[in-house]
Amino acid sequence: MANVIIVGAQWGDEGKGKIVDIYTEYSQQVVRFQGGNNAGHTLVVGDEKTVLHLIPSGILHEGKRCLIGNGVVLDPKVFLEEIDGLKKKGYLKDDSQLVVDGAVNIIMPYHKKIDIAREQKAGAKKIGTTGRGIGPTYEDKAGRRAIRFADLMKPETFKRKLADVLPEKNFYLEQYLGEEPLSADEIAEEYLGYADRLRCYLGRVSTTLDAAIKAGDNVLFEGAQGSLLDVDHGTYPYVTSSSTVAGGACTGTGLGPNKIDQVIGISKAYVTRVGEGPFPTELHDEMGERLRAAGHEFGATTGRPRRCGWLDIVALKEAVRTNGLTGIALTKMDVLNELETVKVCTAYRHGEELLEEFPQDFDVLKECTPVYEEVPGWQCDINDTKEYDQLPQQVRDYVDKIEAWTSCPVVLVSVGPRRDQTIQRTNPFVK
């Protein structure tokens, strides 16, 4: 038995969906513990691509139970669209395969409207949110005025909570953001219309997982976004609104930390970022465009082109520490196939000071410049390599350096987008 957390070790978009899909083979329960439909996990099975935003990636495996923990915020319309898309492809034949915790907070129309209007009002100072209403929903959670998934199943409770909060939201929308107010009746009609279809998924994730673990099941915890977007430990204020580090798996599901056995961080062989915020190794030249084209770096949720840069060891060490990583899964190695040399940032320069630890001060971070070490490229196609010792020596040297710099083992190397283009060095579910 093993319980394993998967987290992004950069600014998101590291390829978590594929890695979760692979590790699902060894687990019986797959649980999402934070974020909302601002995340996008892309999976390629055979020649078929599936993009998931809310439902755990394990749903593509028959007989696996997928759970959405209390730390998630959920847009019921998007959730139902995702369910319908999966069923159309022949997945989710058994609705009992999917469980949503009653304490999951619901994304309401005013959350989305506020999110978009705030960004427009901020202009050049915008955060770069997805406009999906994630942040405003978490604000209501912290403010103890959220509407929960369980509330949606009780019409009178839903209407009462909506009546309590909507006047304040409409005042803010009209008087500060200059937007039209929303109708309580229209919202209730729409959302209570979702309830009948969603009722079969209501459950309690904490007790469900506890029983499964006691029965000997393996559990895979699926994170969204990346460690550097954590609301506490990321590049604040250019972060998401939830706890994306491994600790969020416990608070976001109701399980204690003594239940966790391994924490695997997903890192690209380079770095990308979507949205605003500091990015020390970002490339604004032809090489950045080359990485974007080779890696198909466009957001799975927004379609926005991702900012691209060289691998940042300073940031990766931060992820190793804040998550307690026991292993790194290195993705998109094949994107570097044609490069003669590869650069890696091993420190930052801030004025006369050399920084080897990730600065917490935003003003310092945005003034940092990367200190690079160049390593030889491999200039050959590694996409169909099946065994680690069959990889070019330059690839293995690159992996060795990452392990030495981060003091964390690389347990998996991905050499292409498909499920079968993956080399596992060690398996976190096998002791």
TrEMBL record:
<keyword id="KW-0460">Magnesium</keyword>
<dbReference type="InterPro" id="IPR018220">
    <property type="entry name" value="Adenylosuccin_syn_GTP-bd"/>
</dbReference>
<dbReference type="GO" id="GO:0004019">
    <property type="term" value="F:adenylosuccinate synthase activity"/>
</dbReference>
<dbReference type="InterPro" id="IPR033128">
    <property type="entry name" value="Adenylosuccin_syn_Lys_AS"/>
</dbReference>
<feature type="active site">
    <location>
        <position position="141"/>
    </location>
</feature>
<dbReference type="GO" id="GO:0044208">
    <property type="term" value="P:'de novo' AMP biosynthetic process"/>
</dbReference>
<comment type="similarity">
    <text>Belongs to the adenylosuccinate synthetase family.</text>
</comment>
<feature type="active site" description="Proton acceptor">
    <location>
        <position position="13"/>
    </location>
</feature>
<feature type="binding site" description="in other chain">
    <location>
        <begin position="13"/>
        <end position="16"/>
    </location>
    <ligand>
        <name>IMP</name>
    </ligand>
</feature>
<dbReference type="InterPro" id="IPR001114">
    <property type="entry name" value="Adenylosuccinate_synthetase"/>
</dbReference>
<keyword id="KW-0963">Cytoplasm</keyword>
<feature type="binding site">
    <location>
        <position position="306"/>
    </location>
    <ligand>
        <name>GTP</name>
    </ligand>
</feature>
<feature type="binding site">
    <location>
        <position position="144"/>
    </location>
    <ligand>
        <name>IMP</name>
    </ligand>
</feature>
<comment type="subunit">
    <text>Homodimer.</text>
</comment>
<dbReference type="InterPro" id="IPR042109">
    <property type="entry name" value="Adenylosuccinate_synth_dom1"/>
</dbReference>
<protein>
    <recommendedName>
        <fullName>Adenylosuccinate synthetase</fullName>
        <ecNumber>6.3.4.4</ecNumber>
    </recommendedName>
</protein>
<feature type="binding site" description="in other chain">
    <location>
        <position position="240"/>
    </location>
    <ligand>
        <name>IMP</name>
    </ligand>
</feature>
<comment type="pathway">
    <text>Purine metabolism; AMP biosynthesis via de novo pathway; AMP from IMP: step 1/2.</text>
</comment>
<feature type="binding site">
    <location>
        <begin position="40"/>
        <end position="42"/>
    </location>
    <ligand>
        <name>GTP</name>
    </ligand>
</feature>
<feature type="binding site" description="in other chain">
    <location>
        <position position="130"/>
    </location>
    <ligand>
        <name>IMP</name>
    </ligand>
</feature>
<feature type="binding site">
    <location>
        <begin position="12"/>
        <end position="18"/>
    </location>
    <ligand>
        <name>GTP</name>
    </ligand>
</feature>
<feature type="binding site">
    <location>
        <position position="40"/>
    </location>
    <ligand>
        <name>Mg(2+)</name>
    </ligand>
</feature>
<keyword id="KW-0547">Nucleotide-binding</keyword>
<feature type="binding site">
    <location>
        <begin position="300"/>
        <end position="306"/>
    </location>
    <ligand>
        <name>substrate</name>
    </ligand>
</feature>
<dbReference type="InterPro" id="IPR027417">
    <property type="entry name" value="P-loop_NTPase"/>
</dbReference>
<keyword id="KW-0342">GTP-binding</keyword>
<dbReference type="GO" id="GO:0005525">
    <property type="term" value="F:GTP binding"/>
</dbReference>
<keyword id="KW-0479">Metal-binding</keyword>
<dbReference type="GO" id="GO:0046040">
    <property type="term" value="P:IMP metabolic process"/>
</dbReference>
<feature type="binding site">
    <location>
        <position position="13"/>
    </location>
    <ligand>
        <name>Mg(2+)</name>
    </ligand>
</feature>
<dbReference type="GO" id="GO:0005737">
    <property type="term" value="C:cytoplasm"/>
</dbReference>
<feature type="binding site">
    <location>
        <begin position="332"/>
        <end position="334"/>
    </location>
    <ligand>
        <name>GTP</name>
    </ligand>
</feature>
<feature type="binding site" description="in other chain">
    <location>
        <begin position="38"/>
        <end position="41"/>
    </location>
    <ligand>
        <name>IMP</name>
    </ligand>
</feature>
<keyword id="KW-0658">Purine biosynthesis</keyword>
<keyword id="KW-0436">Ligase</keyword>
<dbReference type="GO" id="GO:0000287">
    <property type="term" value="F:magnesium ion binding"/>
</dbReference>
<feature type="binding site" description="in other chain">
    <location>
        <position position="304"/>
    </location>
    <ligand>
        <name>IMP</name>
    </ligand>
</feature>
<dbReference type="Pfam" id="PF00709">
    <property type="entry name" value="Adenylsucc_synt"/>
</dbReference>
<feature type="active site" description="Proton donor">
    <location>
        <position position="41"/>
    </location>
</feature>
<feature type="binding site">
    <location>
        <begin position="414"/>
        <end position="416"/>
    </location>
    <ligand>
        <name>GTP</name>
    </ligand>
</feature>
<feature type="binding site" description="in other chain">
    <location>
        <position position="225"/>
    </location>
    <ligand>
        <name>IMP</name>
    </ligand>
</feature>
<comment type="function">
    <text>Plays an important role in the de novo pathway of purine nucleotide biosynthesis. Catalyzes the first committed step in the biosynthesis of AMP from IMP.</text>
</comment>
